[in-house]
Amino acid sequence: MTPGRREDQQAESPKVAPDRRREARRGIGVFLVALVVLSAPAMVFAVVARNDIGILVLMWAPGLAALATRLMLREGFGDISLRLGRRSGWALLIALGYPVGIATAAYGLGWASGLAHFTSPAGTSSGWGSFAGELLVGTVLGTAVGLVFALGEELGWRGYLLTRLIDAGVPRPLMVSGLIWAAWHLPLIIGGSYLTGNGGSMPVIAVLFVVQVTVVSYVFARLRLDTGSIWPAVLLHASWNSVIQSVFDPHTSGSQAWLWLGEQGVLTLAANVIGAVILCRRPGRVLRQPPT
Length: 292
Hints:
mainly alpha; 2 strands; 11 helices
């Protein structure tokens, strides 16, 4: 049995009352409608104007959609899970270090094999020492800044949608949550404002990205459900964006680098599969909130 199947079956196992299941399904429907309504203007701005401000605003659309759904359906805010429990410490360390480990393995192999090339962006010092300094700053300071925007997404994806998919009895809720999360990015990829700036085939990039996000969503879900807190997922999201997008990607070049590295890269995907297997090989828990 693959770790993905085990995790999904674990998430499906709790008994859910029929009323709660109906409420969860209604919440999913309202959330998805609100998500489209709130995301569309920001996506248009990001694609047409090619402005990063649109993407930063877009990152808060899932969170605002979740908050709007809670208000419309009078669900309350108790299960957002903004509290840290006793088991959250190890999860926060994993969340901060996971992108560094994945990127070091994938990009290191890509650079060493010649599938891509290590380079220094214009205006920065060259050499591995400078790169190590950038990685340290990106992991600490870049992640801290990124928490503001990552929180906007995670309030929606892991703070609302994931637990509703479980309560609604949706088959393989962890996989479905990852597919929805990936599909939400596709308009940006198709519009050419996300991931396609370094060349490459847009259809291939889109397919690889969907697979990549679906795989890594199991890691996000495991950290969220096993601790009962969304903060490990928020930290992982912020750390991933900073380490991959702001540190490793700018130091990578090559005509085929887009295929092997980056958020859609084959080597990054392989490293994520291994990481997900390691972290999800044992059955986890399904906690809505941290244990008191």
